[in-house]
## 1
Amino acid sequence: MMTAVRLYIEFFLTGLFAVGGGLATLPFLYEMSARTGWFSNQDILNLIAVSESTPGAIGINMATYAGFTTLGPAGGVLATLALITPSIIIIILISKVLEKFRDSAVVKGIFRGLRPASTAMIAAAGLGVARLALLRTDMLAGGNLLQVFNLPAIALAVILFVCMRKFKIHVIAYIGIAALAGILIGF
Amino acid sequence: MKELMELIWVFAQIGACTFGGGYAMLPLLQREVVEKRNWVTEEELMDYYAIGQCTPGIIAINTATFIGYKRKGLCGGIFATIGFVIPSLIIITLIAAFMKNFASLKLVSSALSGIRICVCALILDAVIRLYKKAVVDKVSVGIFLVVLLLSLLTDIPSAMIVVAAGLFGYILVWRGGMAK
């Protein structure tokens, strides 16, 4: 029971202090492992690999995995709920404030600055994924520039993109097709 | 109650299709929550994302709470967020219990190599739509380019970049530069 309470508090604090994407929770996990001994550094490496290769937010996946390692299935649920509790409280408070000031010139001005910034960050994240998925940067050393481009991968990306713009099919269909292509062809 | 169940269902689907972190969630939100259901506008989605970056917690969770709250208040925020984490809970618990070697399976890594390509196409599609709404004048083109370069080339935390961009927008309004 004590461990359960501590597990909740540890992940609550992680949710409270980790700002940004899921990997922002990583330093907290390392500290937690050093302080509590609930899981090893090897466990952390494994949970990063699993979290990145399964659907869902990476931070949530890591919390579920770390909680499971500590206290079994109930620990996984507990750690995940703990991680999202601060978000829910803080975002609901902010939503209430926003409702009130939505039409003020100040808030509108702030958002005029935020929206292009937000778009640029998503574009940057997309380019990061594209470098991993469409390029073979390790070929750069070989000197043959053409080999740097993973042509089959780029072709699939173009086909998927055109289909997305043209047809309104559920995203899961595209993900399924892409996964299948990955298994059959390999990129 | 029916609406709360729908929130859980929609966000569970989004949680199950989000590969590669919070940013990959955006194209799904555009389709399911903006286009199909009109729960929020594209602009609101961008605002939630921006705020979600510089407030405590994981971006994907913050965004889910925002949309749920907009739709159905306090309960909506909680239900949407719970819905989003349900697939993670199930999938990760199963893997942690039975398949610790999951990430090193050949089948998994080949499937992921394909899924990553799909995520590229999805994010490109999302960025094009957002760009049309967010980048409307010279000032916003400038902000877009500066932030893009900063995110690509430096290690400045994104929370700081977001705060700086918001402050910049505020100063422009204050000086009358963006008054519209």
## 2
Amino acid sequence: MAERLGRAVEHTGIPLEHGLPLIVSVSIGAASLSSRNTNIDTMLGNADKALCAAKNEGRNCGRAFAVDRADGRYATERIFLWKGREKMSKQNEAVPEQRGEYSMVEHLARQGVSRRQFMTACSAVTATLVVPPFLRSGAALAVEAVTMGSEQTFWSSCVVNCGSRCPLKVVVRNGEVVRIEAENSGTDSCGTPHVRACVRGRAMRQRLYSEERLKYPMKRVGARGEGKFERISWDEAFDTVAAALRKTIEKYGNDAIYYQYGSGTYQLVAGRAPNFRLLNLLGGYLNQYGTYSSAQIREGMPYTYGDGGNGSYMTEVANARLYISFGNSPLNTRQSGGGKGYEWQCAKDAGNVRTILIDPMYTDSMLGKEDEWIPIRPGTDAALCEGIAYVLITENKVDQAFLDNYCVGYDEKTLPAGAPAKSDYRNYILGNGADKLAKTPGWASQITGIPVSTIVRLAREIGDTKPVFISQGYGVQRQANGEQSVRAIAMLPILTGNIGLPGTNTGAREGDVEMGAVGLPTGANPVKVVIPFFLWTDAIERGTEMTAKRDGIRGVDKLKAPIKFMWNYAGNVLANQHSDLNRTDRILRDETKCEFVLVIENQMTASARYADILLPDLMSQENFDYAADGYASGTGSFLVALQQAVKPRFEERSSFEICRGIAKRFGVEEKFTEGRTQEQWVEWCYNETRKKHPELPDFAQFQKQGIAKMYNKGKANIALEGFRKDPMKNKLKTPSGKIEIYSERLARIAAEWELPPGDVITPLPQYVTTWESHLDPKAAKYPLQLYGLHGHGRTHSTYHNVKWLRELHPDMLLINPVDAAKRGLQNGDPVRVFNDRGTVLLPAKVTPRIMPGVVAFPQGAWYKPNKAGVDEGGCINTLTSLRPSPLAKANPQHTNLVQVAKA
Amino acid sequence: MAQYGFFVDMSKCTGCKTCQVACKDMNNLEVGRNFRRVSEYAGGTWKEVHGAWQQDVFAYYVSIACNHCAQPACVEVCPKGALAKRADNGLVLIDQNKCIGCRDCEDACPYGAPQYNRAIRRMTKCDGCQDRLVGGAQPNCVDACPQRAIEFGDIGELRRVHGTLAAVAPLPDAATTKPSLVIRPPRKARPVGDKLGAVWPLPVED
């Protein structure tokens, strides 16, 4: 009866004023009078309890009140459940504009009442009917007014590797995400911003429901890299992976299992952590140091400052009179509405700061927000800094007291005892050093492409203004000798004493509060050897030849085994974000070298094609977890609940469950779980974080509010503030405790390491003319410098397969009209971009926003070679080189010479 | 009568197009149909002097939805009277029961606001998220902008706060349709009718 009633209600549309029917579905709770229960109010109360249970099961469900226990607990029985609306949903999907999108629940939702609240307060909002006696029972009916299903909002986050983890409010209807809404809790102001997701997070729905979503465990059936797979069961998948792991461990040892760098899923429990946890339980794995993002700055800066040089916060820009940044576009790379990009705008609005941006491109951080743009050839930042230093020194604009008291090696006075005569910075710049070359503005102009008058004026501005805030993005260091450029830029604040004071910075990238949120514990890795993240292809090809002094191997002098097992979780490094993809492809395809490739992923990426076993991961919107603010939120921090907004549609599993399944094959499931489910681990981790930050709400409240924000926590805004106040008490972590302009450690490395011809490591930060710079003789054949930019429409390679983003942020080769004219190119023309390593096809965008002699296109597009080996996917790494930088052994992915021709 | 309109702070816009995607997400807009559109306007020249480069480059973006004009060209040309201004707030809306999909409004609007929906063969456009307004929320594009560059409200009030500028290049002269729009120009804005720059994306004819 109840079911018939429900169906009848659902099929009766109520006409509304704008002509579309209001479709109503019901949930029914039933209770009857009995010998135990003769009170009408109790019966109605029981019916209401049954109704609540019914509503919790979803729409179109009825439950009857069955058992009333003495302890106050009760039970209900399902009396019906059917799936309504499916047909109608589909019809309406085709013609979205004809949807009658108005309902009581939506109306309530718009007034701030979510369906969840609506549901959990059944009694408060249900219309209770007393049904006539012929039904022989009393029943309560809740009329849940819905059109195409009511909306429910869940919390989630965009957990990709842009540095932010912007919260997303995921609106769900009929078990399907229908849109994303912005985080808007609390007051929105510069100091306490709503963490508004950028264009990528707002497009999440298309990534969640993309055609490339992986649905089932699969095994490779074609050649490796061919992309042919066959569906298998989870059992078969776990058995195969376990057997391959066993074989690798027995034959080569755990050192032969490589955990590939991958940063696609930054959530705290069921992201990367279970993978590490499992592998550590199995005896460990070969890990890497450094990242494709920032290896050279993180390796280079400590020789000057003793640590990676986390800069002053963006908020400190407000206290500066002059802001100068190299290769930094905060409104591209930190584009969250609640992160450093927004902070930068706020700081500029609040202060009175002149902004000079030095970049080969007129970026989206400029557009009139800058006071001056100085175009510079890629890879020549160090030369500019030296030209500036020449003016500062010769015009007596250096802070001699600061250099004497806080630094080592500016002039001969503070040069370490063991250093050769005249090897100090001052003598090097003035032309009295070993190279006998004065680093005049004229010299710098010819290298950088910047007019002499601009260099002199810039130097005087830096010397005459206080305070000056100098920083750099990560683009500068992703070069053939980026380590040197990084330290050269640091020389500008050092020379002028713009260090440790309000409105100053170290020359590093702007800093960030880290709240130290706790993730799933991973345990310790028994394998102590690590390789540079960029040399894994070498470690496959010639692993046992790799040494500490030649290849930067750490923990041992020599690798024991080449990489034989590739563990690739949530990453597209394997065949997309690594370099020289045509060569990488050949290395990966050779099954005698790397014998097994495991890929755990949620999309069919370029790298997923190379899997032997390919396992489907959940997206965060299907998972239960939590995430923290990342490393780009600036002075604000937050935790965001990842709630299961929608159920997985196929056989996808979380990384926790996948690793648990493999752990079971090795008999270590208990050790892996420690008796906790994923959900229990999430709560455990949250509570551990709460121990560090007692002001956080309890877990239940956190789930309810979805986000917990914290601001600054009183941490210092100014980098090296303590050191500046008291350099004896607050020594730096350099061997001398001071800023080391001359680094004895680097002098020793330069003497001891085996470097290929052309690679240079120097104790001073010095400009080095590198391979594939514009001064390389190769430029005769390949006259254009190419680098990859961070476009708005992708985070590295994530979101590449989102149609809206490709529509609005298409991949195009940016080329100056001067260079386009030489090649007869018009806007929109298809072009070939090529060098000895490969060819990429793209349309050209002829624009004065890129300087002549330089071309660029957004990095991260998915590698898609055609039969002729030409990349139609537009992936820049078809053109980049596998040759590492000298010190960090890192990725020089912005150092490329190419030619461009009409396709 | 109130008249709703938009304020766009072009000096803050970064061309990220979050407003556009939020709008597409809200309204289920397929590739090619955009109730809000962000265009780049860029120009300038380069000169090599003694091996170094000199330039006078400018660039900026303009984000435009429907301006719910005081003299809407779309309303004037519609042969079926399907387009009308809402009496209480001035939003220009399409009655799809009357629309025949002739696309005259699309040609008439100098801002490209009416967007043709091939699936239903009707015109569609920005309705100021009028349903969201009921609950006191702002249009989705306004809530989405990471730089807080878009505002929505009574145009009289927006003009009182932000002034009356309603056009820089490449926008049409505001006298044409009297848009309910206020902009804050970026520092290097060029005047209406400027020919030094180029618009991207290029207008697509179909």
## 3
Amino acid sequence: MHLITELFITFIAIVAFGIIFSIPKRALLFGGTIGMITWGVLQSGLLLGTSSVFSTAIASLTAAIISHFLAKKIRIPVTALSIPGILPLVPGSRAYFTMLSFVEGDYLTGLEYGVETMLQAGAIAAGLVFALAIFSFGKGIGHRYEPNR
Amino acid sequence: MRVGGIMGKADDVMDICLLAGEIMLKYGAETYRVEETLERMSKAASFTNVHCFATTTGIFLSFEEKKEKEDLMQMVRIDDRMQDLSKVTDVNQVSREFVAGELTVEEARQKLNAIANAPMEYPLWLIHIASGVAGGGFSYLFGGGWFDLFPAFLAAVVSSIVVVEFERYLKVRFAAEFTAAFFGGSTAIILVYIGFGSNLDQVIIGSLMPLVPGVPLTNAVRDLMSGDLVAGVSRGAEALLTSLSIASGIALTISIFL
């Protein structure tokens, strides 16, 4: 029951965020739905006992994959969907507590929160990158060797 | 005369390409998308040797209209960086139609000009209210209660209004975010202090959520991964500076009021 309330609030908050970023009207509800799915995946991951960084990475990967699919379907730049998709994962709470600890002079706790913030941001990036690697398969940039020459 | 006509066409195509690129980059498209769009449009207009280089603050485009003639090359500088993804979508649509041959150069120019001069997709008051809703929602998601929705809503509206109005009169971006975080945080603390809401931390976080640099952050990752290292690093620096100005704004509030 609690999860359903949270999903509902996520949907509304993400649609509102879509308006802040001026996402086209036809993509608003899609963005909200993707954000809702992201939150659901994140919470189920946490419920199953995985670490928050891993759940974030999986949730971000899910969001990015759905965004890439939908973006091709409704012909829209993928950022208009992936930005709402990953917004529920933003470590705003941890970033705030990092800053709060530093202001209060509690540097060790601050560093702890800071590292968690960085890891979670990195996990979001990792999810996006994996999805990108799947969807732009074969047309990436060259790297290191040219074995086919 | 005929040569003049061809020259005219090359100039026109150069103009609409750069206009399209300028709109896209200004309103928050990724660098790779700008480069790809411009190269496709130039090739669709049957120019060869097309090269485009875009960073976060400027676009270079060069192409050759005929063999054994000099290449044309132009650049535009982009000063403002806004977040309006619906304009990026519109330009994307125009370029797609142009590449498919459904639009002439003149029609494409008219459409692009219309996009450049169009008002925002959503009116300003709706954006402020949306900031409030987003702030309230996230304060709940980050562990606040039902009583925290209203103060977080108000504080987020305040920070959204401050960031927009400050930028309108003083064009200093990071100072605007600093001030917005300061006023949003102060509103949150005052509201909780006089009895609205119970979890101060969650209300403050909610008031800051509308300021999150979502567009530069996502674009930085995308640009770095597609090999546009210069653009990616500069976007990342932009996102980092925004986050730091928000953090210092809220740090000032907390040092003063708590």
## 4
Amino acid sequence: MKRVGNQVLASILVNAIYEMKNYPVVLLNTVLSPLSFLVLIFLISDGALLGEAILGGLIMSMFQSGISLQSDLSHLKNDFKLQEIVVSSPTSSAVYVAGMALSEIIYSSPAIIILAILFALVINVPFIQVAGIVIILLMVFLSSVALSFALSTLSTDIVQSYSFSRLITILFTSLAPVYYPVTLIPEPLQPLAYLSPTTYAAQLAQHMAGLTQVSSGMFVFDWAVLLIFTAVFLWVGYRKARWRDV
Amino acid sequence: MSVGELRCIGLEKVYDNRKRALSAVDFSVPTKGIFSIIGRNGAGKTTLVRILATLLEPSSGTATIDGLDIMKDAGELRKRMAVVPQEGRPLPWLTPLQTISSYLMWRGESYRVSRRKAEEALASVELQDVSDRLNHKLSGGMKRKTLLAMVMASDAEIIFLDEPTTGLDPISRQVVWDLLAEMGRDRFLFLTTHYLEEAESVADRIGIFDEGNLLALGNMDELRASMRYQYSVRMSCGIDLPEVDGRVLKGHDGRVQVLTTREEAMRLSDQFIGRDIQFSVNPVTLDDIFYNIAGRDIRNDVGGDEGGGE
């Protein structure tokens, strides 16, 4: 167990702590993306959608952390052959991915901490509701991590990987109704929004934070869809990722 | 169970693009000292290393290292092996100390122990003064030494090094050779290279690879002994070469080389001394052996990779 802890810590050090320590400026990047959207939504809505924007920022941070794993792993694998060095060591694929995934959370921690403080100040809900929102955020993170790992092991082109990461983040967190209620989208376009798992996550989180209301049927449906998305992405990550090349 | 040897039986690799990288490779070598595979670019060296280092699945055939199967016992083998890939580079945002200590932590060492071992390894390769400098500020030779120090610091007994000196200047290359010789004293090093002088200088055993086939295997004496002609006579061009029992080669530099027997080399020497012709006589080098076995010069590369890792 101690051995696994050291292996996880190695990934966190390499992909987060050392980079943050050696290049503190990178911290700004992780803070700016989610907070800039929050400020924009706050200004446009005249403060009315502040709660939704904070939740959106948290969902974006978690999703972006998971999706960033794809380009980071791909970069480490293709440009530095780090994956080959790790594959031929006692570290297993699951431990490597767990460490790298945690490193992404730590990398995003400045933004997450700021958003969590804002959440505590602006949204007053019972602990059980907060726990529910945390579970939703973890499901969003897990889904994106699993998908990222599978894509990174298949990727041989870093430019494509970075572009794909950005594209998925924009589609699932900027265009999808994550920072605002889905009802603000014109009705004919709403079915498109429901193609994204983050729409269900945001809708659930907004409901649990007491910001919007959904019917109990919709509430159950949202959980079911989010669970299915998470299970499918985890399955894809488990089945399709290549630790040893074929 | 065969212990203490690396054994390949009918190892084949055909990539998705139908490129055949390995053709039924069979050989065995003891897992001690330095074993070097030499061959041109695209000969199949990297594919073989990646398969043996449990990074790539073979299309067919098997291989065992100290009795452990590369497919079935990969987990156990990975505890005992380490790899420096052909294009492996230390991460630019880390320092050499952070690079080595992180790697040791991936091998299960604690933070404290890995830092101590990393410091010792850096001192052993004389990089202690740059241990806290970012990797991207290091020279190419220092980066290579960092990766070698990384595997040296580990407890791995089997180390795969894929072209560890490619791109290094001659002085850095010599420094790396010294390191390899030191590492090879108590571990098994599997080294690929297309620098023949590298294999000749550091390897205990040499395998000659071409187009996915192992053409010859042995130490330098055994490889020489396998040659029909074991001596090389070199002389300037433009001389009237007498009839010789041997193989006459004309080099790109305009010099003429005769691969021949010891007796014929002596006879030619006597003639050249009498005619005041400048010449040299030497036992055949690995260059000559490679040319003789593969039928072409190792440096006459057509380039290309090894079929990719897909």
